[in-house]
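Course assignment 3, question 2. Fill in each field.
Student: A.L.
Task: Predict the tertiary structure for the chain below.
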Amino acid sequence: MTAPEGLPGEPARLTHPSDDPYHPAVTPASTRHPVEHEGPLSAERQPSRSRRLYRRPRVRRIFRALASPSKFGLVGIIGIVVNQAALYFFTDILGVYYLWSAVLASQVSTLNNFLLTEYWVFGDRQLGGSRLWRYLAFNAINIATLFIRIPVLYVLTDIFGVFYLWSNLVAIAATFGVRYLVADNWIWAGRDRREQRSIAGYYQYDVQGLIRIQSPVALPELASFNVEHVVEPDLLIRRRLIGGGPRLSAGTFERDGVIHYREQLGVLSTAFDVTIPEERGKPIILDANWLLVWSHHVLYTNMVEPLLRFMFVDRDHVLLHCAAIDAPEGAIVMSALTDTGKTSTVLRLLMHHSWGFLSDDMAIVSPAGELLAYPKPMTLSSHTMSAVNEHALPMADRMMLAIRSRLHSREGRAVGHALGRMPIPIVTVNAWVQILIPPPKYHVTSLIDCDMADRSTIDSIILMERGEPLAELPTLEATVDRLLTNTDDAYTFPPFSTFSKLIAIGGRDYEALRVRERELLTASVDKAWRVRVRVRGHNWSDLIPTLVREKRPLLEADVAADDAAEQTDSLDAPEAAVAAEPTLEPVAVASVPDVEAAAR
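Answer field:
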């Protein structure tokens, strides 16, 4: 049997960067902003310098963060100085008892911090509402923290004999995290939220001209599609007082053509109704209760997006769980299970190549093979932050990221899934968690300098996996199976598994919609080059440029070698990486029946 063309025993090597259309040096300058980057993986397979630059050991990253305080951190430092000075003045100069002095000093530092935060830290933010209300809310939070600070101050000073000014520093530090989260997420909310405007009490969204939405609450995930005119909605979200009385268990049921979801605590827990009209031209109505409207991340992720998925199918498009970038030859689609590394891969690729951002989580594909952008905010993790410059976010954000990213990580979701199997109102718990500690979401342009692309023709499909190194060309059917599996993985949290099966749109029930989704996706990726690659680490950004350039899978030895280099380089020891790099020997690439047949 003749070997398939483009699958030689030894990988082709470029002799000059200009031979590579994917090298940033030859990307048309008119279509991309110039950014500092390096080219794709070198012919010598040397460990990438970019990994050493952007993947510093954790301890070094922490010290760098502490050395570059944000405006919010500087206000906090100034506030501590003011608080200490006021405490000393009231106690030692005026002779006020030190615990009462602490209360008075707190009022002085609160006013100081509010003015600096309002006019300096968030002075460039479009803020609605009253400045007086923000001051009262800010002051109320600081008064509430006194219930922690005063006991700490008393115990350290009167019981352990610590000087009261030192005790005060400890008490302030004990409540910093709470004050930061509240100030950032409630009072001056929107540090990285795209500004959205409502019309007649509703936010208007037009998603790529395919689906239009009206919502009484802003949906940050759809901020890129917010329009400043009234739309004729295909999906209408309404705020309703629903929930009923207490129940023994959560339940989803259909009555009179309306899908109902209720949890155990009645009106105190999450509840929603979905009304899907039989007639075309009428909007689907999602009635959400007060808690869902408050927790807009849960409202979108667990109710709105699952509905959108099947509404797109009814409009002959697929909402695909994937990352995508616009490269010179077309869109590179990267599909993987949740938390495999798509977001960090996209960030690294955009930093080192003048390509356009399409998506890091969801994208819309048409049966003609066109991919439409769906630019949701990125949910950051500690690993994702290692892919960007450490100064991209303020110090306070980076310090709190450790808590917020851990809570919303794979481990956090695993705990949520385990709780979901117990007789507790899991969606209610999730809603309150998202309200109190929102997921760390940032727009891509807040992290790196890159172009935003709107649409592109699909050129390549990269099926990303973690594990023992593997490289193969999958069949079209296997590719579609994996794409749908990875998409389903994004909808595993309750209540999707129960209410989705009751959905019927355009004369198709749930099963028929799934069949149609597969048909559309098969047509979408039929002409795209497809590859499945598995690595142990996170070195996708080094492998993908070579994959899409040469349109063949790397040899498994190549994948293993670069994987080993990435693992060694994460220790920031280049000399160890060189020593550990294995000799590349040709290894047979797993092939598939349709490729073999084409090669005969």
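Instructor remarks: The first helix runs from residue 49 to 54. The longest strand covers residues 455-466.
Grade: pending
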